[in-house]
Amino acid sequence: MAKLVGPRVYSCSHCGNHVCLHDDIISKAFQGRNGHAFLFSHAMNIVMGPKEDRQLMTGLHTVADIYCRDCGEVLGWKYERAYEETQKYKEGKFVFEKLRIIKENF
């Protein structure tokens, strides 16, 4: 009998809450505040902070920090608006800092 394996997920490194799916990764070539980060199309079990304009490496963006719903740890941010046309693909997407998430079911 074949063993069923669940989806590959990333969890909050602080409390283990599932926050994103491996299949939702758009890019692994992002830079967070504390090192490498991943861009995801979706997130789960998070809460968002207030929106604010922030000057990032790729220009001015409106972003909202994202926090683990269970423990409140800052995990990254959500792009709400990109002011430069070449950055519009990021709108509505989530950046998770690699140090803040751990792999499960890999």
Automatic annotation (TrEMBL):
Family indicated by similarity: Belongs to the yippee family.
Protein name: Protein yippee-like
GO molecular function annotations of the record: metal ion binding
InterPro entries linked to this entry: Yippee, Yippee/Mis18/Cereblon, Yippee_fam
UniProt keyword annotation of Membrane present: no
UniProt source species: Ensete ventricosum
PANTHER family assigned to the protein according to its UniProt record, in alphabetical order: PROTEIN YIPPEE-LIKE CG15309-RELATED
Cell membrane listed as a keyword: no
Yippee domain ranges (all copies): 8-105
